[in-house]
Amino acid sequence: MMKGIVVAVCSSDRTGIRKEAVPSGMFMKDHGLLGDAHAEDGILRQVSLLAVESIAKMKNLGIDVGPGDFAENLTVSGIALHHLPPGTRLRAGSEVVLEITQIGKACHKGCAILEQVGTCIMPREGVFARVVAGGCICSGDSIGVIYEERTT
């Protein structure tokens, strides 16, 4: 089983801005991170995830970025998230189950990183998920694949 660590839980009450790291977050089934601007009942992109290894690629281009700068809710280490197909389920902490629904998303108009360097990692390596089982996720919690969708 692929396992990693939640490096940061990030939230913002407004869209279009970076998210701030918080010690923990309550993730609600079929909704997303409580209090986050992107959480919404029934949508497929309730939670966004990005690997620190992906952030490091942008740092290598000379950009000073870190957790939350790509508006991700969960920054994780140790799992190549963008290689997991939609349908893959992840357990974060002891309770939360996320199901990957989408890999990548076009940057919004005015994406500061895209404008600054001409490229952004989120369209290729950002992952979106829905909350299948809710609960609390804290920085430092484990995260791992519990079911991987098979592609034929």
Characterize the biggest β-sheet: 7 strands, mixed, barrel
CATH topology: M1 Pyruvate Kinase, Domain 3
Report the oligomer.
single chain
With helices defined by DSSP (H or I, 4 residues minimum), what is the helix count?
3
* Number of individual domains: 1
The level 1 CATH classification is Mainly Beta
Number of strands: 11
Percent of residues in beta strands: 35-45%
Secondary-structure class: mainly beta
Contiguous runs where pLDDT drops below 50 for at least 5 residues? none
Q: Taking strands numbered 1, 2, ... along the chain, how are they ordered across the largest sheet?
A: 1-6-5-9-8-7-11
* Cα-atom radius of gyration: 14 Å
The sequence of SSEs as H and E is EEEEEHEEEHHEEE
CATH superfamily annotation: PK beta-barrel domain-like
The rough form would be described as: globular
User: Could you tell me how far the N terminus lies from the C terminus, measured between alpha carbons in angstroms?
Assistant: 20 Å
Write up what this structure looks like.
The protein has 152 residues and is mostly beta strands. The protein has one domain: M1 Pyruvate Kinase, Domain 3, CATH 2.40.33.20. The chain is built from 3 helices and 11 strands; from the N terminus they run E-E-E-E-E-H-E-E-E-H-H-E-E-E. Strand 7 and strand 8 (96-103) form a beta hairpin. The two termini are 20 Å apart.
